[in-house]
């Protein structure tokens, strides 16, 4: 039986290393350039979020004092002319920054004005 051996045509005896080496100043320049590109992209993309120059109109409200036994549902149902009591409740909670629907007697609430 015969054997066949192949020798590579070209054998490199030295490994090639990259000739580009960055100094501390070079790394700083690359970092700052990258940072400027990212900030410029963020500035361009954020340019679409623009507000108007005019002030908005606040919703008309009135002050209601909570009587003993009153609930937020009861107050909202008196105000809601279109039958959307839950929506009026959410609006009252938002206007008064309420954490819960519990009310205390004597508490003053800002409520939307009825539109009859």
From TrEMBL:
UniProt keywords, alphabetically: Membrane, Transmembrane, Transmembrane helix
UniProt cross-references to SUPFAM superfamilies, sorted A to Z: LysM domain (SSF54106)
Domain LysM span(s) in chain numbering: 62-111
SMART domains: LysM
Superkingdom of this protein's organism: Bacteria
TM helices/strands, residue ranges: 27-50
Keyword Transmembrane among record annotations: yes
Protein name: LysM peptidoglycan-binding domain-containing protein
Species, as recorded: Nocardioides potassii
């Amino acid at each position: 039986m015969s054997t066949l051996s192949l020798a590579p045509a070209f054998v490199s005896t030295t490994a090639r290393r990259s000739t580009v080496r960055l100094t501390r100043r070079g790394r700083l320049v690359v970092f700052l350039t990258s940072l400027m590109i990212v900030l410029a992209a963020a500035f361009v993309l954020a340019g679409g979020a623009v507000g108007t120059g005019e002030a908005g109109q606040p919703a008309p409200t009135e002050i209601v004092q909570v009587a003993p036994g009153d609930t937020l549902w009861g107050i909202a149902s008196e105000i809601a002319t279109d039958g959307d009591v839950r929506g009026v409740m959410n609006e009252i909670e938002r206007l008064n920054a309420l954490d819960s629907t519990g009310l205390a007697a004597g508490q003053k609430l800002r409520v939307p004005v009825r539109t009859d």
